[in-house]
Design goal:
The protein is mainly alpha-helical. It has a domain at 40-156: Cytochrome c-like domain (Cytochrome Bc1 Complex, Chain D, domain 2). The chain has helices at residues 3-19, 40-49, 59-66, 105-108, 116-124, 126-129, 143-156. The protein starts with a helix and ends in a 19-residue tail after the last helix.
Length: 175
C-alpha cells in the first residue's frame, strides 16, 4: 500500500470534521423561518386594501422598478442587510433604527418614522431628502414608478395597515 493511501484518511479527517461545523446553527444572514410566498390573489387583496393612491399601484411595474434597488436591499422577512438595510417591516419603523445595520449619522439621528409619503420623497431624491445619508442611488424621477414601488413594498414587506380605533357612539347621551 502506498504512503498516500495510508495518509489520505488522516488528511481528510479534519476537512470532514470542519465541514460539519455549524450545521445545526442557522447562518446569521439566513431567514429565521422560511418566507411564505403570497399568492397573486393575496397580493391583489393586499393591494386593494392600501390607501389611495397606492391601491391603484401596478405591482409588476413596482417589482420591475424595484429591481434597481435589489443590488443593495432585500425585502423578505429575515433577509440579509446588504449595502442597504433589509426593508421588511420598514413602514412604521423609525428611520435609522434597524438593529445591527450601520446607518449614516444622518439616518441614525433622523427624527421620523417611515411612511409612504416620506418614502416617496426619499425615492424621488435621497440626497436632497436627507443630506448626509450614504445612499448613492440618484432616485426615481417618475411619480408612477415611485407609487408602484411603494405599493410593491407594502405588499412584499409585511405592511400592516393601522387598525382603526372604534369611534365612540356620539348618539348616546353622556350619563
Amino acid at each position: 500500500m502506498s504512503r498516500f493511501a495510508l495518509a489520505a484518511p488522516l488528511l481528510l479527517a479534519p476537512i470532514v470534521a470542519l465541514s460539519a461545523c455549524g450545521q445545526d446553527a442557522p447562518s446569521p444572514t439566513a431567514p429565521a423561518k422560511p418566507a411564505r410566498v403570497l399568492t397573486d390573489t393575496e397580493k391583489a387583496s393586499l393591494l386593494a386594501a392600501l390607501p389611495a393612491p397606492y391601491n391603484a399601484g401596478d405591482l409588476n411595474n413596482g417589482r420591475r422598478a424595484f429591481a434597481r434597488c435589489r443590488s443593495c436591499h432585500t425585502v423578505g422577512e429575515g433577509g440579509a442587510d446588504m449595502a442597504g438595510p433589509n426593508l421588511h417591516g420598514v413602514f412604521g419603523r423609525k428611520a435609522g433604527d434597524r438593529p445591527r445595520y450601520n446607518y449614516s449619522n444622518a439616518l441614525r439621528t433622523a427624527d421620523f418614522v417611515w411612511d409612504a409619503e416620506r418614502l416617496d420623497h426619499w425615492l424621488q431624491s435621497p440626497r436632497t431628502f436627507l443630506p448626509g445619508n450614504k445612499m448613492t442611488f440618484p432616485g426615481l424621477p417618475d411619480a408612477k414608478d415611485r407609487r408602484d414601488v411603494i405599493a410593491f413594498l407594502k405588499v412584499e414587506t409585511g405592511y400592516q395597515p393601522p387598525v382603526p380605533t372604534p369611534a365612540k357612539d356620539l348618539a348616546q347621551p353622556a350619563s
